[in-house]
Specification:
The radius of gyration is 22 Å and the shape is globular. It has helices at residues 31-58, 62-69, 73-76, 78-101, 103-127, 130-140, 146-157, 160-192, 195-198, 201-215, 230-253, 258-280, 288-291, 297-310, 314-322, 332-360, 362-382, 387-415, 421-446, 459-483, 492-499; strands at residues 11-12, 17-18. The protein is mainly alpha-helical. It has three domains: 33-226, MFS general substrate transporter like domains (Growth Hormone, Chain: A, Up-down Bundle), CATH 1.20.1250; 229-284; 291-506, MFS general substrate transporter like domains (Growth Hormone, Chain: A), CATH 1.20.1250. A hairpin with a 4-residue loop joins strand 1 and strand 2 (17-18). The two termini are 24 Å apart.
């Protein structure tokens, strides 16, 4: 099979010289290779658009699920909590399998599972069964693994600026798909007039992705060690599960929730056991020396900070914009426009990322994204309500999030050890998903600060959320500035010595 070598540094042992991370120039690549790369990226772009559309399509329809199936607001929270938890637990395992068995093999299995999941959700709506719908959402969780496997496949088939441009386009397309799905589902529902006639749009689109993966998608097997550390993955999954449960309980029962506190403490203890086990086992699920290295560790920490705010602030923003007393008094249509414009800004930033990285470098580019987002939240907190304030917020936060969300998955495969591009990028997805679960719970708790005796949210609660968002992003910025090493231009052996691990090869 004609494949491009994976992204790596090469050492000439005779001259002791080093070649850069970009091993070949796209300008000198054969025309056939460029054509193959274009076909690969186009295929992935279509699939990621479908993924984004699917994930965005359901959100405006959640209240209709409640009306149709007789589920209250608290029960409806399971619609998003279940797939989020499944993604956090299983993405590391599935991406590791991709490194071992081949990315296309795992993509075929996962996309088929998601297709079946959408059919089960449709059947649940038709049968009036909430349990069946939740089963479908559980099986839908692995959709989160599409992106890291696609990024790993791109880095296996391309290199340098070509890879950066491809990944940026893929992430931008995912966001475009999310915008399209969110914006269109309400109109599609209105056209069909019933949920049971609206939901089939999703499996119809997923079927396109299935065909592309089975017919067009090329294969790549990295040659990673075939051993799978089941115990390590199980402990990691338990850490994520206990953490999510702990925060959910704290949100439901307040800061004095005994169950929540016990779950969070248990998560910390299990994390310590997991770290010690992974550090001393011969074939760890996650090489913690890589995970916490200066090359990758700060990226995962910053991904948690990014995910906490990005996935956590949208709901408070919507309710704030709708408030007549201290907000903007917007109707749903205006709120939708504001959120859509924010997502559009993230798309623009993702598309401009290759130019930014070319001018500033990867680290400074990522720093600029955090700086823009922090400034956006600070101004949102300090300025009085106006269209100008909202416009500044949309531009700064949207562009900032776009740069952060696109830059991290571009940088990670360039720094990851050979044969671990899938799991390394998958951990980014898990990190931001875990951050989103924690951030959502945290912000719901903070909104209660300053609440009236009747439980009504006040402006003080929102101010605390905005300041906390700025603080979390500032911590992410500090992590990147202080801990993230610069782009390495060293030999594989030098990198091994720097991280004190014979398994690290950049």
């Amino acid at each position: 099979m004609n494949t491009t070598p994976p992204l790596t540094t090469n050492t000439d042992t005779n001259t002791n010289t080093t070649t850069p991370l970009t091993t070949t120039s796209p300008d000198t690549a054969p025309t056939a290779n460029r054509s193959n790369t274009f076909a690969l990226v186009l295929t992935i772009v279509v699939i990621e658009f479908v993924s984004g559309f699917t994930q965005g399509f359901y959100e405006p329809l959640i209240p209709k699920f409640g009306e149709t199936l007789g589920v209250d607001a608290s029960g409806l929270t399971l619609f998003n909590i279940i797939p989020t938890a499944v993604a956090a637990l299983f993405v590391p395992v599935l991406t590791r399998l991709g490194d071992i068995k081949g990315y296309r093999v795992v993509l075929r299995a996962v996309i088929s599972m998601v297709f079946v999941a959408t059919l089960i959700i449709w059947a649940g709506v038709a049968a009036g069964s909430w349990s069946l719908v939740l089963l479908g959402r559980l099986l839908n969780g692995p959709i989160a693994v599409w992106l890291p496997l696609h990024i790993a496949l791109v880095h296996a088939k391309t290199n340098g600026k070509q890879a950066t441009s491809a990944v940026s386009a893929i992430i931008a397309t995912l966001t475009v798909g999310t915008v399209a799905g969110t914006a269109s589902s309400g109109f599609i529902f209105r056209a069909f007039g019933a949920l049971a006639q609206t939901v089939p749009v999703v499996p119809a689109l997923i079927a396109v992705a299935v065909l592309l993966v089975f017919i067009v998608m090329p294969e790549f097997v990295s040659g990673a060690d075939p051993y799978i550390d089941i115990k390590g993955f199980a402990l990691l999954g338990l850490v994520m599960f206990l953490t999510i449960i702990g925060f959910v309980e704290v949100v439901e029962g307040g800061v004095n929730s005994g169950i929540g506190a016990v779950a969070l403490v248990a998560a910390g203890l299990v994390a310590a056991v997991w770290y010690r086990y992974e550090k001393h086992t011969e074939h760890p699920a996650i090489d913690v020396r890589v995970l916490f290295s200066r090359e990758l560790g700060p990226l995962y920490l910053s991904a948690i900070a990014y995910g906490a705010v990005f996935y956590g602030f949208l709901a408070p923003l919507a309710t704030f914009l709708s408030n007549d007393d201290y907000g903007y008094g917007y109707q749903p249509e205006a709120i939708s426009i504001a959120q859509t414009l924010t997502l559009v800004a993230t798309v623009i930033a993702a598309l401009l990322l290759p130019v930014m990285i070319g001018k500033l470098g990867a680290k400074l580019g990522l720093i600029s994204g955090f700086v823009a987002a922090v400034i956006g939240f600070v101004l949102w907190t300090e300025l009085t309500n106006s269209i100008l304030k909202l416009g500044l917020f949309i531009v700064l936060v949207g562009l900032g999030f776009g740069v952060i969300g696109a830059a991290i998955p571009v940088i990670i495969p360039q720094r990851a050890p050979i044969g671990t591009h899938g799991i390394a990028t998958g951990l980014f997805n898990s990190a931001q998903t875990l951050g989103g679960a924690l951030g959502g719970g945290l912000f719901l708790s903070l909104l209660r600060v300053g609440a009236t005796e009747s439980g009504e949210i006040t402006a003080k609660g929102y101010d605390v959320v905005w300041l906390t968002s700025a603080g979390i992003l500032a911590l992410g910025l500090l992590v990147v500035v202080r801990l993230l090493s610069r782009e390495r231009r060293s030999t594989e052996q030098n990198v091994k010595n720097n991280v004190d691990s014979e398994r690290i090869e950049l």
